[in-house]
Write a structure and sequence with these properties.
The structure is a homodimer of 343-residue chains. In chain A, 33% of the residues lie in helices and 21% in strands. Chain A is built from 9 helices and 12 strands. The first copy, chain A, has a 7-stranded mixed sheet with strand order 7-9-6-10-8-11-12, with helices on both faces. A 5-stranded mixed sheet of chain A has the order 1-2-5-3-4. The longest helix of chain A has 20 residues.
């Protein structure tokens, strides 16, 4: 979870590109420590993926390949408790972590949930939200830790594996090839638009822009409060020969940038599917939609597989180019960046 | 990590027994959610251990038994940045989580580290502390998350397995039997005494009690800042037929209470080994020593195994009785409770 939602109350102090630099430097330090343990051969060892993808892949010892992922949800950075419930926070912390496994085409299996909370927080509501997401994702919470603290922090760690089917590796960010088609698993901008609506309601401002039926408004608010990890979509894409994937946590523009850098390719978008009631800006930069972006050499195969599995059809958005660094939308350079800082 | 270290600056809001009640209620909710996934048979399934031991044991799908544990370190609850460095915080967060695996007789293998930090915190120092513990524990950090926030929170999740040797199950809290001998892996009270000394220095107060040589003072401070997970001791105890174990995070009195309740037994202590410079009170109730308490029907076998492995000899402290709820020290009732709240 990377997108600060705190809006005009002040954004998180570590938002923006610094976070990625800091993570990279920390990752370098951790790998140096690993060298002491694994003095020979490549790091990560063959079959493993460490820092830099949605989830880590571990294949050590006698164990089969397993996946590990973790995400933080921090009050006033990622969530505003005036705009969502304590249950929403628990639900979201679990779901966004599981989404990292969805982006690898994997399934979650067991999770740990650690909670920091001030004394006025209802822990049983927080647990209910976690449990609801646990049920929805088919992932049992088997442990955790609890502490007091000045704001709510929920840290979920998920352990999972590649599901059934032929033995294909996990879907990495680094697998995209020039010529691959790109699609997303659903229209975007819902979470950012829902966040905007909730803030407008909080400040008694009328919702801007077009008139929307109540059902569409509810859908946007739900997209913000109750995102869904696209586990079926990730697994079916992996089994149908996708080459790379990432989940949309930071925003489409930012996340395809991660994928392009990992793969050493460029990206040309010809369409951005926008959910009813959101703006294209929100769809491009809002983040937290948790739809998947998938690259594939064979889009027809994935469309067929989605139809057979009863999933919504994948939405084509563009293609992968052979020019590293190139980021184009309808022929124009795509402005870099992710977060919307000015709700 | 359960022991609030905030002393007279105000203890953490969730310290004390409430934490255990809250965790139990949350665990009940998580198991209810698991029932939807695993509609038949016992929960946890055979071969698994969920909330309530030092680490969770997972044996799902086609995978061998693996262990998962997580711990939180929260600024002003578990650590005071006037008394220890940012590196210490990283080191401690990793080490105390690994200690949960030591208490199961298991080895850590891979870890995830999630960090919340205000902007003035040097993240590379935090990473150095994490990396140092990672090296010392032979456990590679393969992922994590990073966010801004008002105080430092480090949440480490560790994935591990039972190490080499004959196929014995993990050491549980619930395995102690009446007649078993109890021992600890080293003298206690060092972390609490080190914390007391650091606070006396901070407030320019002379260290109370006996005169200590500087090397002993340093040892106490180090015990507080740089605890060591007793991985060899846990594994050798498991392989030498120990029946139960727990690590001393809350304090000897509190932690043997957990072990006794899990096993449905009583405990009679005849000795409390106190490290030079600490008080018996600190040894009983100080916590954060991360030595192991081990129960065994065959103390001679464990002593021999420790000697063969070049480990410090186990220190006998008492035995397991058949009277559930009984907690006795030298024939007198042991006052319940854990944390020292009044430094």
């Amino acid at each position: 979870v990377h997108r600060p939602n705190s809006g005009d109350e002040g954004t998180g102090p570590r938002d923006g590109i610094d976070e990625f630099d800091a993570i990279e430097a920390m990752g370098t330090r951790f790998v140096a420590a690993a060298r002491a343990r694994l003095p020979e051969g490549p790091l990560p060892p063959v079959g493993e993926v460490w820092i830099g993808d949605d989830a880590a892949v571990v294949a050590s010892g006698t164990h089969a390949q397993v996946l590990l992922a973790t995400d933080l949800v921090v009050q006033d950075v990622h969530v505003d408790l005036r705009l969502c419930s304590v249950e929403d926070v628990g639900y979201k912390a679990m779901m966004v972590t599981v989404s990292d496994l969805a982006a690898m085409g994997a399934r979650p299996d067991r999770a740990l949930a650690s909670i920091v909370a001030p004394p006025d927080i209802d822990l049983q509501q927080l647990a209910s939200g976690l449990a609801e997401a646990s049920e929805a994702c088919d992932c049992v919470i088997v442990g955790g830790d609890l502490s007091g603290g000045p704001v709510v922090v929920v840290s979920v760690a998920v352990y999972g594996a590649l599901g059934v089917g032929p033995a294909t590796g996990p879907l990495l960010r680094s697998g995209a090839e020039p010529g691959d088609r790109l699609f997303v698993t659903g229209p975007l901008g819902g979470s950012a638009a829902g966040f905007r609506l909730l803030r407008q309601r909080l400040h008694d401002r009328p919702p801007g822009g077009q008139e929307l039926p109540p059902s569409a408004l509810d859908r946007l608010v739900l997209a913000h409060r109750r995102p869904r990890a696209r586990l079926d979509e990730g697994e079916v894409a992996r089994l149908a020969g996708a080459s790379a994937a990432i989940d949309i946590s930071d925003g489409l523009a930012s996340d395809i940038g991660h994928l392009a850098r990992s793969s050493g390719v460029g990206i040309s978008l010809d369409a951005v599917p926008v959910i009813e009631g959101a703006t294209e800006e929100e769809a491009l930069h809002g983040g937290e939609d948790y739809e998947l972006v998938v690259a594939t050499p064979d889009p027809r195969r994935i469309s067929d597989a989605y139809r057979s599995a009863g999933l919504r059809p994948p939405v084509p958005i563009g293609w992968v180019t052979g020019t590293p660094g190139e980021m184009v939308l309808r022929g124009e350079p795509l402005p870099p960046g992710g977060w919307i800082h000015r709700f």
